[in-house]
Amino acid sequence: MATNHHSSDPHHSSNHSSDHSSDHSSDHSSDHSSDYGFDHSSDSGMGQLYIVATPIGNLQDISPRAVAVLKRVDRIAAEDTRHSGHLLKQLDINTHCIALHEHNERQFAEKIIQQIKQGSHIALISDAGTPLVSDPGYFLVKLAHEEKIPVTPIPGPSALIAALSAAGVATDRFCFEGFVPSKGGPRKSFYAQRQKEPRTMVFYETPHRIVGSLKDLCEQLGEDRTVVLARELTKTFETIRNDTAKSLLAWVKDDSNQQRGEIVLVVQGYKVVEGDTISEETERTLRILLKDLSLKQAVKLAVDITGEKKKKLYNFALFLKDSQVE
Ligand code: SAM
User: Fold this and answer.
1) Can you give the three-state secondary structure of the chain, one letter per residue?
2) Mutation test of ligand 1: which of 51, 54, 56 has the most ligand atoms closer than 8 Å to its C-beta?
3) Quick check: is 241 in a domain?
4) Which of 73, 88, 160, 294 fits a disulfide with 93 by CB distance 3.0 to 4.6 angstroms?
């Protein structure tokens, strides 16, 4: 495991190891409180990679530790240097910024890794929130681990966690599914595939697609499903509404303001309702028919054989097909 070496710099006296097995919770020297965990020296002569979360709207949400690290690294790798330049200026951070272009992330990652190996400390930031959460950075972090380069997260805002924490739906188990597909067909299948997902689901959505998305959600997950729209979090027009899918759709359709800004959808997981389950025999029949027939033909025959409702079998067939369950 890559280890973040102890500092020999007199300004940075804390012991910091990324090997958490060696952490001692009572050892206050390991909480980085004196130097924000920034370690500017290493025995190997290598630098470090810092993954730094930045605000999702409210500038005050940046942590003092994030500011300290961004000020002290040699370079900041940003998703968009112009966008981040604005934030850095407001925070009085003058560190040189380099652009991480999503289309050549692999190439860029190799370059950054070389610089870290030669002793540079680099911080990665995205346009907003936590890098790698529906944002670039994966290749860079993966490569850093392959090269035994210490990777240090500087945690902070993320729309996913902010929405979830305020949604009022179960949070004991949840899954994050990133952006909902943009087009109608794939979007319907996407929701259909998640019909029986028992965990709370979190999706990112865009304002111009929210109405279509909620329509498909109603159709595939049911009008009574609890859905939370979390919009413009931490900003002036922050809106969080917890309602049934049907009511939420009507409200968003009626009020064009709800079709603006940045949006997270938090959706309650599937609850087994009596009479809503598919029997093992029906599922087996449908699976066999789907092997040789089109979805439409398979559903038609399955309805004739089992006497089940067409819509229920159609949705279940979509689910089986999209999840490619054998
Ligand atoms: N890495 C970011 C994070 O940690 O939240 C997410 C980046 S992703 C490219 C951008 C999407 O995140 C937006 O389209 C929206 O769905 C969601 N998002 C970002 N900021 C938001 C905010 N202030 N309120 C609601 N959703 C937000």
Assistant:
1) CCCCCCCCCCCCCCCCCCCHHHCCCCCHHHCCCCCCCCCCCCCCCCCCEEEECECCCCHHHCCHHHHHHHHHCCEEEECCHHHHHHHHHHCCCCCEEEECCHHHHHHHHHHHHHHHHCCCCEEEECCCECCCCCCCCHHHHHHHHHCCCCEEEECCCCHHHHHHHHHCCCCCCEEEEEECCCCHHHHHHHHHHCCCCCCEEEEEECHHHHHHHHHHHHHHHCCCCEEEEEECCCCCCCEEEEEEHHHHHHHHHHCHHHHCCCEEEEECCCCCCCCCCCCHHHHHHHHHHHHHCCHHHHHHHHHHHHCCCHHHHHHHHHHHHHCCCC
2) 56
3) yes
4) 88
